[in-house]
Amino acid sequence: MKITRRKFIRFLSALMSFPFLYALNSEVKKKIESDTHKEKIYLPDDLGNGTFFLNPVIIVKESTNTKAYLSKCTHLGCYINKVEGDKLVCPCHGSEFNLNGEAIKGPAIKPLEKLAINKDPKTGKIFVYA
């Protein structure tokens, strides 16, 4: 059986694609696992106006408007646990975010990850996935 140059190149190309496909498959698996293992965090029923830290979530409530953010700083992932006036402050490197989650002082430049606020249809309780 004679192997032509064309068949050899096709075989070599297929062989060289295996490491790429393996790496892609493992990244997809990691993404699926991280999405399915999120923690359900319930918000207290008597939540007043203000900013609250429910690790790993930041809740910002202003009258009827409630927002939720992941409290991980977008610079290096430190957990934000302090509010100064109308700014959320990262304890590690001093990044600051406004109450809309936007970076207003570096070193972080990306906004905080916004979380969807959900209502449990059975209990009526409000929760977020983090």
Give a brief rundown of this model.
By secondary structure, the protein is of the alpha+beta class. Helix content is 25%, strand content 32%. The chain folds into 2 domains: 1-37; 40-129, Rieske Iron-sulfur Protein.
Structural notes for this entry:
The chain is an alpha+beta fold. It has 2 domains: 1-37; 40-129, Rieske Iron-sulfur Protein (3-layer Sandwich), CATH 2.102.10.10. The chain contains 1 helix and 11 strands, in the order αβββββββββββ. It has one helix spanning 5-36, and strands at residues 40-42, 50-54, 57-62, 65-70, 82-84, 87-89, 96-98, 103-105, 114-115, 117-119, 126-129. The strands form 3 sheets. A 4-stranded antiparallel sheet has the order 2-3-4-9, with no helix packed on it. It is elongated and about 80 Å long. The N and C termini lie far apart (59 Å). The model has no long low-confidence stretch (mean pLDDT 83).
